[in-house]
Amino acid sequence: MKKYLEILKKCPLFDGIADDHLLKMLPCLGATVSAYDKKYTVLMEGTAAKYLGIVLSGSVQVVQVDFYGNRSILSEITASQIFAEAFACAEVISLPVTVIANEPCEVMFIDCAHILHTCANHCGFHQQLIFNLMKDLARKTILFHQRIEITSKRTTREKLMTYLLQQSKKAASPRFEIPFDRQELADYLEVDRSGLSAEIGKLKKEGLLDCEKNRFTLL
To answer: Residue 62 belongs to what domain range?
Structure first.
């Protein structure tokens, strides 16, 4: 586990925890690591919602597929970030989402029960760990409301511009990159890809934005 120390130090779950304590706690938490190829299913919808995941390298996407096979990208999780913690903490019976490797990646899994319930060793770092988990859940709630702001818009243009304005604000610049290709962006915005491409073309002609692949400039 020592080789993952630098990336784990950046993970919000371990914020404020000393390096030596971090390495000692991983066996106590029953942490395991698995590797996945691109497009491989990391967690499948319907499986037991017991574990939170930490991306050690690469990235994963949290997706939801409806009855008709339409896919929505709920979020993209990159190195040092956490996923599936809300479902594990809520003790739901099964996952309502699927997690897919967006590229070759390594993922650490921790049984959330080992975090929420202190162990017999009475580790001094445990309270900090629970505090960090609650803070991460609060941050994810804010991001969820930002997504609702996007998907609640009526038209493709409104959804696209709301998302791009959010990304521009996050980057503190009118020039920024997004983590999606065109199909993934359409899935995230919950719109048709052809309609999205047409709308981007119109906005470019109107002089409101410029873009190349996943790089955008708001004019």
So the answer is: 2-147
Do 132 and 165 belong together in one domain? no
Task: Check which CATH number belongs to the domain holding 190 and give it.
Answer: 1.10.10.10
pLDDT in tens, 132-176: 999 999 988 888 888 889 989 999 999 999 999 999 999 999 999
Within 10 A of 82 (CB to CB), how many other CB atoms are there?
22
**How many domains, the chain?**
2
Domain limit, last residue, from 94, 125, 147: 147
The answer, yes or no, to whether residue 97 has pLDDT greater than 90, is yes
d(CA 215, CA 175): 7
Question: pTM for the full model?
Answer: 0.79
Q: How far is it, in rounded angstroms, from Cα 34 to Cα 11?
A: 17
